Amino acid sequence: MNEPGNLDISQLLQGTRQMNQHLAQATEDLKTLTATGAAGGGAVRVRVDSKGVLTELVISRAVADPANAQGLADLVLAAVRDAQGAIAAQQEAQLLPMLQMIQSQLGGLQG
Fold first, then answer.
1. Which of 20, 22, 53, 103 has the highest CB neighbour count under 10 A?
2. What mean pLDDT is predicted for residues 84-97?
3. How confident is the model at residue 88 (pLDDT cuts 50, 70, 90)?
4. What percent of the chain has pLDDT over 70?
């Protein structure tokens, strides 16, 4: 039995194993995330993968005017940025509980 303020190595190792398991699961979960983004009231829609890479692009005929190529490019960029922001928010939401758990466990090690 440990006196207050003493470190219990077996408890620390068990906590470390649990954190490693949670981290491995979170890493796998993050790899499968996708997010969508839109611009122009949905005239341009995109999907990005967990790394923010564009995997799908849908352009409405209404904005596919060759005379307005720059406007279309702006809509595509806005939709991609929207999707990338959404994927970042999903990643943060998944990682925050794990970071809080780590902080809690590290806080328990302080005297």
1. 22
2. 92
3. very high
4. 90
Sign, CA torsion 89/47/84/67: negative
> What does the alpha-carbon distance between residue 89 and residue 69 come to, in Å, rounded to a whole number?
30
Global pTM exceeds 0.85: no
Residue 24 in domain? no
Q: pLDDT per residue over 29-55, tens digit each?
A: 889 999 999 999 999 999 999 999 999
Burial grade of 106 (CB within 10 A; 0-12, 13-18, 19 or more): exposed
CA 25 to chain centre: 14
Q: What is the CATH number for 74?
A: 3.30.1310.10
CB-CB neighbours of 34 under 10 Å: 14
CA-to-CA dists, residue 19 to 30, 31, 47, 61, 106, angstroms: 16, 18, 31, 49, 11
Residue with tokens 């005239």: 43
Q: Which two tokens stand for residue 102?
A: 């780590």
